[in-house]
Amino acid sequence: QVQLQESGPGLVKPSETLSLTCTVSGYSISSGYYWGWIRQPPGKGLEWIGSIYHSGGTYYNPSLKSRLTVSVDTSKNQCSLKLSSVTAADTAVYYCARKGRSGWYADYWGQGALVTVSS
Amino acid sequence: EIVLTQSPGTLSLSPGERATLSCRASQSVSSSYLAWYQKKPGQAPRLLIYGASSRATGIPDSFSGSGSGTDFTLTISRLEPEDFAVYYCQQYGSSPWTFGQGTKVEIK
Question: Which residues contact B2 (CB under 8 A, 6 or more apart)?
Answer without folding.
Answer: B25, B26, B27, B29, B91, B93, B94, B98
